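Let us practice reading a record.
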Amino acid sequence: MSFTVNDWSRSMALETAAGIIRGEIGLLEGCIKLASLANGLVDDWTNDEDFLVFGGIADELDGCPVGIIREYWSSGALQREDKKIQEYENKVRPIVFAACKNILIRYRDNNGITIA
């Protein structure tokens, strides 16, 4: 049995969605990851209600100190931006969790990945 790009994308989407819900993956970093996986899973992410959530959030994060880029920001700038990021995360958390749960339902394959 061969492993395809779609299989890999599906597996990564399941792991990422479950990790977001369990708090093991940062909400915003997880959205960026899921948005990057969309092309391997759906024909057009702009017409998919779940990937539209992830893609929209990823687009809104352009220029924000999320992920590895944080090491290049000053501590003062990070403090200022972290407050904004926390407020944004609180605002989008319910829709991200709902979209993640949908991903788990759509792509689950009985490989041991669970919601909680």
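A brief commentary: The mean pLDDT is 88.
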